[in-house]
């Protein structure tokens, strides 16, 4: 099972996990959030993230999802990427997270494809 780490501004990751828990009917396994505050040292955040990745990885790798491309959480997440082991995506929304959680039994690259499809397909003009 692929692990999922949300690397986000403040408590956004925790809130999204709480929402996903509601949608899925229970807390997801091997899923955690790391909150990044305004004045946090990116090197310290990276160290914390690497420790969480070690905890979340059951041997199938970890998908790191982050909120805003170009911001500190995304910049740190980019430094975590390891082909075939740690995949990273920015633009996190609830649809992306739910898709990643629902398809974690697939190979890590396929989990990433499903997560990105979920994120894009979850954005609609409902007019």
TrEMBL record:
UniProt key word Transferase: yes
Entry-linked InterPro entries: Bacterial_PTS_sugar_comp, PTS_EIIA_man-typ, PTS_EIIA_man-typ_sf, PTS_IIA_man
Residue intervals of the PTS EIIA type-4 domain: 1-123
Keyword Kinase among record annotations: yes
Name assigned to this protein: PTS fructose transporter subunit IIA
Chief site of localization: cytoplasm
Record localization: Cytoplasm
Membrane-spanning parts: none
GO biological process assignments: phosphoenolpyruvate-dependent sugar phosphotransferase system
GO molecular function terms noted in the UniProt entry: kinase activity
Source species: Crenobacter cavernae
One GO location term (cellular component): membrane
Keyword terms, alphabetized: Cytoplasm, Kinase, Phosphotransferase system, Sugar transport, Transferase, Transport
Coiled-coil portions: none
SUPFAM superfamilies: PTS system fructose IIA component-like
Organism classification: Bacteria, Pseudomonadati, Pseudomonadota, Betaproteobacteria, Neisseriales
């Amino acid at each position: 099972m692929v692990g999922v780490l949300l690397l986000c501004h403040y408590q956004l990751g925790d809130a999204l996990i709480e929402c996903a828990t509601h949608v899925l009917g229970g807390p997801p396994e091997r899923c955690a959030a790391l909150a990044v505050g305004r004045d946090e040292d990116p090197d310290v955040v990276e160290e914390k993230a690497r420790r969480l990745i070690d905890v979340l990885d059951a041997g199938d790798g970890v998908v790191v999802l982050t909120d805003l491309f170009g911001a500190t959480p995304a910049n740190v997440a980019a430094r975590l990427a390891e082909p075939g082991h740690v995949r990273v995506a920015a633009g996190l929304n609830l649809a992306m997270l739910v898709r990643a959680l629902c398809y974690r039994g697939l190979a890590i690259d396929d989990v990433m494809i499903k997560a990105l499809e979920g994120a894009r397909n979850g954005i609609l003009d409902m007019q």
